[in-house]
């Protein structure tokens, strides 16, 4: 397959045909962190979209957040390979860049949980900053192709490094309204909200690509630092890069340390539902497949050196997210009683009485809200999954995939849960 790709590239080269980012020839993706939540969903999305027109190499250290079960079917395909390893391993990444020779490096690998960054910030520097710098540098060396007429570094055609970043690099927006107000958007981004009613917002401001970087947690500080390295590699070495900054994702295969899968899992376990502070913080939720679609569009069509924000105008307060999950699970248990077998304590109620307000997260960002005008107007991206549909699918996925949940909640998860929530 490698030989085939080289052969096509050589023909394109000799015919002097410019290789565009739309899909007219086989693309090779190195996906780091591809056994984690978003990385794995991205791999699934790319395979569903492009089939055997892509080759994928997944590099993942399989930390507590990475699970080979998530990509079990994919790594059995002839066009997908998996390597267990650290993005910070210079020798390994150099070898993979040489041997696999990817067109795209998509860096999902990271420590991704704010609460863990508060207890162990150092690890976040190592993975998120040093690890990112390592793969950036290995990609730079592998893709370098001499210099241009002005002596500036030149890179092989069609190569791109994409850093998967987060809206959290912008810090916190103010929550200007206690009760949400109707959201009005410009005609340019109408497609982003197509078919959805009752759009709302909790504030006047939104994150655009020009919003100053102002991270407030060790996690977001490390992600911001990585972003700055990616941009520095573009400015200094002319490296072909993009950065995407997405809002909170939800969907299948999310580790139950994050709000939505944690709440679903706790309901099934018959535990209380920990809501930080007053539950008034606002997040902008996007279904993970819509994020995956945006990433692939940026890889193939994004302008080199640009940052793209990704989000679908879906703000909600945490307490309402928790209540809607309770409502969905209560309904499913009522209407489809066979699911009651999943309840560890069927005698316990599934209603708002199980919500427990707990000590707030230190430095808890109040509100995130993305303005997706740039990606919507430049690349034509729009989300396809309204929240009501996405949350129903996510709850059902969790109910229907208990072996996966058990594989990640046995062992260290219990210890983590007790340490994080035991005395809260
Ligand atoms: P995740 O924690 O579920 O997955 C991270 C993956 O990276 C895991 O498979 C883990 O094993 C792997 N990994 C960790 N350290 C590694 C290392 N040193 N070398 C190789 N692999 C390593 O995270 P996620 O939620 O899928 O997030 C993926 C990326 O998207 C992160 O960079 C995160 O900052 C970003 N992001 C996440 C969200 C969200 O809502 N989850 C939103 C916006 C951006
Ligand atoms: P989380 O899923 O950790 O994502 P992030 O902190 O990156 O936004 O948390 C989402 C929101 O839910 C955040 O405001 C913190 C809150 N939260 C709770 O109230 N209880 C919980 O147990 C967790 C994990 C999060």
What is the H-and-E element order?
A: HEHEEHEHHEEEEEHEEHEEEHEEHEHHHH
State the helical fraction: 25-40%
Number of strands: 17
Structural class: alpha/beta
Largest sheet: 7 strands, parallel
* Net shape: globular
Largest beta sheet: strand ordering: 3-2-1-4-7-10-15
* Beta-strand fraction estimate: 15-25%
- What would you report as the Rg, rounded to the nearest angstrom? 22 Å
Calculate the mean pLDDT score and round it. Answer: 94
Q: Name the bound molecules.
A: nicotinamide-adenine-dinucleotide, thymidine-5'-diphosphate
User: Gap between N and C termini, in Å?
Assistant: 54 Å
Number of helices: 13
Low-pLDDT runs: 1-21
């Amino acid at each position: 397959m490698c030989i085939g790709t080289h052969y096509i590239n050589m023909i394109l080269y000799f015919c002097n045909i410019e290789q565009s980012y739309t899909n007219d020839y086989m693309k090779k993706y190195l996906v780091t962190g591809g056994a984690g939540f978003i990385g794995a969903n991205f791999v699934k999305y790319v395979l569903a979209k492009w089939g055997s027109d892509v080759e994928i190499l997944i590099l993942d250290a399989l930390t507590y957040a990475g699970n080979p079960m998530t990509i079990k079917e994919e790594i059995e395909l002839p066009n997908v390979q998996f390597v267990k390893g650290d993005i910070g391993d210079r020798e390994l990444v150099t070898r993979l860049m040489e041997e696999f020779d990817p067109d795209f490096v998509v860096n999902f690998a990271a420590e991704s949980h704010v609460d863990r960054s508060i207890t162990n910030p150092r690890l976040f520097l190592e993975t998120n900053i040093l690890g990112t710098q390592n793969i950036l540098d290995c990609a730079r060396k592998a893709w370098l192709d001499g210099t241009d007429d002005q002596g500036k570094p030149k890179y092989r055609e069609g190569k791109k490094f994409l850093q998967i970043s987060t809206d959290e690099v912008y810090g916190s927006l103010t929550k200007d309204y206690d009760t949400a107000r109707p959201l009005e958007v410009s005609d340019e981004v109408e497609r982003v909200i197509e078919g959805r009613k009752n759009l709302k917002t909790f504030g006047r401001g939104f994150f655009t690509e020009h919003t100053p970087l102002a991270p407030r947690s060790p996690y977001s500080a490390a992600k911001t630092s990585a972003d700055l390295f990616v941009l520095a590699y573009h400015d200094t070495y002319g490296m072909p890069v993009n950065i995407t900054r997405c809002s909170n994702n939800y969907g299948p295969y999310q580790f139950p340390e994050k709000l939505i899968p944690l709440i679903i899992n706790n309901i099934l376990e018959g535990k209380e539902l920990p809501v930080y502070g007053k539950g008034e913080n606002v997040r902008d939720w996007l279904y993970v497949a819509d994020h995956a679609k945006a990433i692939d569009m940026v890889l193939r069509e994004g302008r080199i050196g640009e940052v793209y924000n990704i989000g679908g105008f879906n703000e909600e307060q945490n307490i309402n997210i928790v209540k809607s999950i309770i409502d969905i699970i209560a309904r499913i248990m009522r209407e489809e009683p066979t699911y009651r077998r999943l309840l560890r304590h069927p005698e316990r109620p599934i209603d708002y009485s199980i919500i427990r307000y707990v000590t707030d997260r230190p430095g808890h960002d109040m509100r995130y809200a993305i303005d997706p005008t740039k990606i919507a107007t430049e690349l034509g991206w729009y989300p396809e999954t309204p929240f009501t549909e996405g949350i129903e699918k996510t709850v059902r996925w969790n109910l229907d995939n208990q072996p996966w949940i058990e594989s990640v909640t046995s062992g260290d998860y219990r210890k983590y849960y007790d340490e994080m929530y035991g005395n809260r």
